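Person: Please comment on this record:
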Amino acid sequence: MGSGQPVMGMDSVTTGRCQQCALHALCLPGIVGCLNSTLGSLVADDITVPKGQTLYCHGDTASNLYVVKSGGFKIMRPLCGHDAHISGFRMPGDLVGACGLTGGHYAFTAQALSRTTVCRLPFDRLREAQLRQPVLAQGLLQAIAHQAAQAQRQITRTNLPALARFGLLILDISTHHKKRNLSGTEFELPMPRTDIADFLALAPETISRLISSLTEKKILMFKGKTVRILDHHALEHACEALN
């Protein structure tokens, strides 16, 4: 799976206070419950990345952490020198670029699934703020730990049957939306089926068969990129039965 070229001349605008952002309670302050705190002084700007372009590439010098405001990214890890495998997705409210906090370089490539906007938080500002606001460091560590746990769960799922892998992905996206006070029953899949297949280590034809099967059983309903969970219990049961 090839990546786009690094973005040149990204659109940037100065951000206002974090409290004015719809994702304020879901960003780093929200993770630790500090709803009255703000990251406004830490946010350098908003960056808009066109569909198919990269926010950063594997091996690039890491100097910023990002929070997705709209759109989404697929995170690709190098395989035999190429960004050939999708290891995760980042959606609104998610951190992007945390892998660069320790190594000095980004370990993955982040490519936009659609026109995507992120808040840019320079590492140097974060480090200074963490000394003054330990709770910020706590929130950052919690967010990174959560993403690491997600990645570990995905590794263990590669041994599951195809239906369980796909069903658990749908349930994960549903949970992500519910945590952000959005509908966990009907939502858009920001990634194409080929990317889902890559992420789940399945053939695209297998994804199509799973969608047809779940649709026929009236567990899920698909219309374009929109998926509706018709029978949440049945979907969970299908995943548990094969887990």
Notes: The first helix runs from residue 28 to 31. Residues 1-16, 29-36 have pLDDT under 50 and may be disordered. Helices lie at 28-31, 100-103, 123-132, 134-157, 162-179, 193-200, 204-216, 232-242.
